[in-house]
Design brief:
With 322 residues, this protein is α/β, with parallel strands linked by helices. The chain is built from 8 helices and 11 strands. The relative contact order is 0.17.
């Protein structure tokens, strides 16, 4: 992607982003000691991702330092505000949004950030919640005729998601979210994710950076991203993401798809040719339209864009100017 550029009065081209290549970005870690080891990387790596120790060092060490600085700055702002108000309110969680396409690796990014931020002494309690839990149950999607549009904005209970993030950011002692199973491809009716005032909450999902929907009375409502203190968009060429999606689908045949309880058990015995054709069809009919219509347009709303090359490595960073 390229940053949006605006012509200034003297004809110079300006951008609201600072653009950095990987080599320049990696130097910004400022000699931070590596907190993760190879076992951590193996545990955090998503299917198809090429996450390795070099990626942790070059990309995620500087990013964790940047986020630690933002958390500290939020603390200073909180202190200044409470002094101004003459109150003694406690800080609310620092909330980070992570967005991007299906198969781009945003879940891996969110998991790595959770582990990295937990290693900083001032943010030991870091929680991660995905928006999958706010999808309508399959029965409700069937009732609404939306099973073929699962992952599109209308397939989520956006009010519930908004209430959840709002409660977290309001400082509620305990906030609960539905739990989603990728095995059964549905909400687990008897399980919940419980968040109890973490230092940092990471919210990961396709549409977390979407703008607010217009209200029926013509006024603008709230968006989930209005409650974010920092936001990240994981980016790549659409053709690369499609290839990663197909490769992941093929790999899942001998993994999750082979489980007798898997919603996708019918795909486990597909041949390579059949699996490629099926994955391509799903991508073209569902994931690519959702990416182009709903996810990609939110990229410019992020404070940091991490751009991947064809090998899944992050090669460029766009950081919004402050």
């Amino acid at each position: 992607m390229t940053a949006q550029r605006i012509e200034s009065g003297n004809g110079a081209s300006t951008s609201p982003f600072v653009e950095l290549d990987r080599q320049t970005w990696s130097r910004l870690a400022n000699k931070i000691e590596q907190p993760l080891d190879e076992d951590d990387v193996q545990r955090l790596r998503g299917l198809g991702d090429q996450l390795n120790m070099r990626e942790i060092h070059d990309v995620y060490l500087p990013l964790s330092r940047l986020l630690n600085l933002y958390v500290a700055a939020a603390g200073h702002l909180h202190s200044a505000t409470t002094t101004f108000l003459g109150e003694r309110g406690s800080r609310t969680p620092f909330v980070i949004g992570v967005a991007g396409s299906v198969a781009v690796g945003k879940s891996t990014t969110a998991r790595v950030l959770r582990e990295m931020l937990r290693r900083w002494p001032d943010t030991p309690n870091v929680e991660l919640v995905t928006t999958d839990g706010f999808l309508y149950p399959n029965a409700e999607l069937e009732r609404r005729g939306l099973m073929g549009r699962k992952g599109f904005p209308e397939s989520y209970n956006r009010r519930a998601l908004l209430r959840f993030v709002s409660a977290v950011k309001s400082g509620a002692e305990e906030v609960r979210a539905p739990m989603y199973s990728h095995l059964t491809y549905d909400i687990l009716p008897d399980k919940e994710v419980v968040v109890r005032r973490p230092d940092v909450l990471i919210v990961e999902g396709l549409n977390v950076l979407a703008a607010a929907r217009p209200r029926s009375d013509g006024r603008s409502g709230l968006a989930v991203s209005d409650f974010f203190d920092f936001s990240i968009y994981v980016d790549a060429k659409t053709s690369n993401i499609e290839q990663w999606y197909i490769e992941r689908f093929r790999s899942l045949r001998s993994g999750a798809f082979s489980d007798p309880d898997s919603y996708f058990r019918r795909y486990a015995d597909l041949s390579d040719v059949e699996a490629t054709a099926t994955a391509s069809r799903i991508w073209k009919n569902i994931n690519e339209p959702n990416l182009l219509q709903n996810v990609l347009p939110t990229r410019g709303r992020a404070q940091l864009v991490l751009t991947k090359d064809a090998d899944h490595s992050i090669r460029r960073m766009l950081l919004r100017k402050v």
